Amino acid sequence: MKNIFYLLLIMPFIGCASTNKTSTIENIQSLPESLYIAVAKANVRQQPTTESRILTHLPIGTKVKVIQQYDNWFRIGFGEGKTGWVNNKVLSLVRI
């Protein structure tokens, strides 16, 4: 089955969705209050780089609080006061 991608314009947010029922974040012009994990197992890292230590993994559908954005990375809050960094490709504007 082919993936067909659609541009989502949810003002003031911009993202994309595909026919495989994922809606990853490609470019956000202003930070939403919360987002959702859009992959089966998202790596939460200590710093905004793939070379950084993995702190934990979050499952699909987990709601996270957006704290900060740095390039293609988001610092998120989750659980009881925990924070870490995830790449924008593992996040969604809607719960999957």
**Strand arrangement in the largest pleated sheet:** 9-8-7-4-10
- If you average the pLDDT, what whole number results? 80
| Class derived from helix and strand content | mainly beta
Characterize the largest beta sheet: strand count, sense, and whether it forms a barrel: 5 strands, antiparallel
Task: Describe the structure in your own words.
There is one protein chain. With 96 residues, the chain is mainly β. The chain has a single domain, classed as SH3 type barrels, CATH 2.30.30. It is 0% helix and 53% strand. The protein contains no helices and ten strands. It has strands spanning 5-10, 13-18, 27-28, 34-37, 41-45, 54-59, 63-70, 73-78, 82-87, 91-92. Strands 9-8-7-4-10 form a five-stranded antiparallel β-sheet, with no helix packed on it. The chain has a three-stranded antiparallel β-sheet with strand order 1-2-3, with no helix packed on it. Strand 7 and strand 8 (73-78) form a beta hairpin. The radius of gyration is 13 Å and the shape is globular. Mean pLDDT is 80; it is low at 1-23.
SSE blueprint:
Layout: E1 5-10, E2 13-18, E3 27-28, E4 34-37, E5 41-45, E6 54-59, E7 63-70, E8 73-78, E9 82-87, E10 91-92
Keywords:
SH3 type barrels; 10 strands; 96 residues; mainly beta; disordered N terminus; single chain; three-stranded antiparallel β-sheet; five-stranded antiparallel β-sheet
